[in-house]
Amino acid sequence: MQSVLLQSAPHRLAARTAHQHKYYLDVQAKRGLLTREPLGWKNVEQFLKLGPCTIDGQKGCFSVSSIREFPILPPKAVKMVTQSFANLKRTIARNIEAEEPRMNANELADLAVTFFIGLSMEQNLNASRTSVTRKVDNFMMLIREMGQR
Hints:
Number of domains: 1
Distance between the termini: 65 Å
Strand content: under 5%
Radius of gyration: 17 Å
Number of strands: 0
């Protein structure tokens, strides 16, 4: 009996993760932070300032929070989260490409996604909105400078 319960726990977690992940992505898509025209740095900045915000009690980014569960999640759930990050990177890169940077847009997008992951994790420490805004402003100053022609 115990082994049946233990075997089903990861499957229950995977189902819950998949459902929450789909909900989270739907909410983020409705917010349209990275798809507003014209594409560019402003979208990236808005996403970093508002993307990891609390939504319905969820602190940070659900995908980031899911990473710690990878060892017990089925491959399908891990693939879903991994694809989500790949899509996020591509969307950020499109915004950066619109600014015609001198540095490779994909490399700059990697930096932005890494920064986003850190911001999302920091939400669990109850970081203040002022602190997040200051960090994003400083990061955007650096990344814009790196991308200038």
